[in-house]
């Protein structure tokens, strides 16, 4: 018998149970499938009266019998040595339960055999559709390979048993069908339930992860919902904070390279001296300091206006004028509740520090503390957009206000002469900046002198507000991680090196500008698109400068005399 002919095989006496039910019931009964695959080789049926199905391709309403895949069962003719072994993987007990007999012989079998013999020469990409007649070969194939669940109510108008041939339309049809084959198929081949059940999916690491071609996409979706893995830095911080006594020296080294947002609130409080290094004392310390701040509110703020002196009334007026202008680009500080807290803590600080009282710029220094401490109630979430304020209770905001007050007090204690009369600390820092730029970039320093630009004209704001008006607040938080890690000199000595690195970064542009353009550029530095990466580069450059010129006053004096 040639390979192009179909063999006639009588119907076996005993049919599998699901086929007997099929002949009794409607041909629309749904039988579920195994995972899809395709069969290589020429589309001819084997001489065996049964067709072993372990993974035949079912694509929409078509059965792909092309040779484009290396999976599934390979079917050959008698001339090719009978049926070849499946290249795909059989699923144990399903191999026998899915054996499908050929249709019984009939008067039209000879005609069908001749027609099919001619069609066997069609291209390997050919496909054929389900037929409607019960008991025919096409019906058996439809029973063995039912439609996908989402196609059961679709259009069944294509009842032709003809091959589609090797035309371009056929290729598009095959490709479209192949795309549909990736839809999940319920694995219920041992029962006669409907195909409307949802597909079974497994976790990524499950032992059943490879039973369906859709498990990769499902596992990806499942893993995306899982919490992100902790970084090595986060694990280090958690290990350090979990100890009963936190070593400050090691904490400063670790925090110099940046603090993860969830741990930033408590670490800032420790580095600013607000909380002790002993973890068991944190709760009692917070409760005591917050009670002290409430007492200060009653003493200085919640009093009649006619009991305040003229100086106190002027200080309060200045605070109330400056607070609405604080961080205008940050929505969080547009909130009335936040502004009320900021006004109150600034006024109380001024009343308790009459030597300096309130000076413009102190209001800016409080903003990173408020934003960081508020984020501590939301797992380190960025609160700058102000959307969390709907979830912030009055008690939470009172605690943030008290913590900000005490931390701001400790911060300003190291740079208080910046805000006293004549502000000697500011002038000292500006002078050191000029000396440093003369040393590291003499061309830029000479150009600034030639155009008539004084360092005090642009650098005073950098020292007064600690670059808060030059960078986005999120960048300032990263900057302060390092400042706090530097210890007492972070906001004064190291800040000068950061300003020098910042100025030299734009050296080539500045040397091409005249007075007006240069002065305008200094007032509006192009840092709106800067992020943590640019800040860390700036900090690295500042560290190199501090290593080269730190504690070298004599060397800088030589530079001053030469200038």
Describe this protein with a few key phrases.
single chain; 563 residues; mainly alpha; two-stranded antiparallel ribbon; 23 helices; globular; disordered N terminus; disordered C terminus
Detailed description of the structure:
31% of the residues are buried. The strands form 2 sheets. This protein has a two-stranded antiparallel ribbon with strand order 1-3. It has a two-stranded antiparallel ribbon with strand order 2-4. It is built from 23 helices and 4 strands. It is 48% helix and 2% strand. The N and C termini lie far apart (107 Å). It is globular and about 55 Å long. Helix 15 packs across helix 23 and helix 19 packs across helix 22. The N terminus and C terminus are likely disordered. It has 563 residues and is mainly α.
Give the strand tally: 4
Helix content: 40-55%
Oligomeric state as shown: single chain
**Low-confidence segments:** 1-15, 26-132, 148-223, 557-563
Order of helical and strand elements: HEEHEHEHHHHHHHHHHHHHHHHHHHH
Largest sheet report: 2 strands, antiparallel
* Anisotropy-based shape: globular
Distance between the termini: 107 Å
Side by side, the strands of the main sheet go: 1-3
**Radius of gyration computed on alpha carbons:** 40 Å
Mean pLDDT score: 73
Helix and strand content put the structural class at mainly alpha
Helix count, DSSP H or I runs of 4 or more residues: 23
Strand content: under 5%
């Amino acid at each position: 018998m040639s390979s192009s002919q179909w063999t006639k095989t009588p119907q076996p006496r005993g049919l599998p149970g699901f086929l007997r039910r099929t002949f009794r019931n409607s041909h629309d009964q749904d039988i579920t499938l195994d995972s899809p695959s395709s069969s290589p080789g020429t589309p001819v049926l084997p001489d065996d009266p049964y067709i072993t199905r372990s993974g035949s391709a079912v694509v929409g309403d078509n059965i792909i019998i092309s040779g484009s895949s290396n999976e599934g069962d390979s079917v050959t003719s008698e001339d090719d040595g009978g049926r070849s072994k499946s290249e795909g993987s059989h699923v144990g007990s399903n191999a026998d339960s899915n054996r499908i007999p050929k249709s019984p012989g009939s008067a039209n079998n000879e005609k069908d055999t001749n027609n099919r013999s001619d069609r066997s020469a069609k291209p390997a990409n050919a496909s054929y559709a389900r037929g409607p007649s019960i008991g025919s070969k096409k019906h058996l194939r439809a029973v063995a390979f039912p439609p996908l669940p989402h196609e059961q109510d679709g259009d069944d108008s294509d009842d032709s048993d003809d091959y589609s041939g090797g035309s371009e339309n056929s290729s598009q049809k095959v490709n479209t069908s192949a795309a549909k084959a990736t839809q999940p198929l319920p694995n219920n081949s041992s029962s006669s339930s409907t195909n409307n059940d949802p597909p079974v999916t497994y976790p990524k690491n499950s032992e059943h992860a490879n039973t369906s071609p859709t498990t990769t996409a499902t596992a990806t979706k499942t893993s995306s919902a899982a919490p992100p893995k902790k970084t090595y830095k986060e694990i280090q911080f958690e290990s350090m904070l979990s100890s009963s006594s936190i070593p400050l020296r090691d904490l400063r080294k670790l925090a110099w390279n940046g603090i993860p947002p969830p741990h930033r609130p408590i670490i800032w409080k420790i580095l600013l001296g607000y909380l002790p290094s002993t973890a068991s004392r944190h709760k009692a310390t917070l409760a005591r300091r917050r009670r002290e701040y409430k007492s200060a509110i009653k003493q200085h703020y919640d009093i009649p206006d006619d009991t305040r002196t003229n100086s106190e009334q002027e200080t309060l007026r200045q605070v109330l004028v400056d607070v609405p202008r604080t961080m205008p680009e940050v929505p969080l500080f547009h909130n009335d509740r936040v502004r009320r807290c900021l006004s109150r803590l600034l006024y109380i600080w001024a009343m308790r520090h009459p030597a300096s009282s309130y000076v413009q710029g102190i209001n800016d220094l409080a903003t990173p503390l408020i934003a960081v401490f508020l984020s501590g109630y939301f797992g380190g979430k960025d609160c700058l957009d102000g959307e969390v304020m709907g979830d912030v209770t009055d008690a939470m905001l009172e605690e943030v206000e008290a913590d900000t007050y005490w931390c701001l007090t400790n911060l300003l204690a190291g740079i208080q002469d910046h805000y006293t009369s004549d502000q000697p600390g500011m002038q000292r820092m500006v002078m050191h900046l000029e000396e440093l730029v003369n040393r590291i970039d003499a061309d830029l320093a000479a150009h600034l002198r030639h155009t008539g630009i004084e360092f005090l004209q642009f650098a005073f704001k950098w020292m007064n507000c600690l670059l808060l008006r030059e960078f986005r607040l999120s960048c300032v938080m990263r900057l302060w991680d390092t400042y706090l890690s530097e210890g007492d000199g972070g906001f004064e000595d190291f800040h000068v090196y950061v300003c020098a690195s910042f100025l030299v970064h734009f050296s080539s542009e500045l040397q091409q500008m005249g007075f007006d353009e240069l002065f305008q550029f200094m007032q509006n530095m192009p840092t709106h698109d800067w992020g943590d990466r640019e800040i860390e580069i700036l900090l690295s450059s500042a560290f190199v400068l501090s290593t080269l010129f730190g504690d070298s006053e004599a060397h800088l004096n030589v530079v001053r005399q030469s200038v």
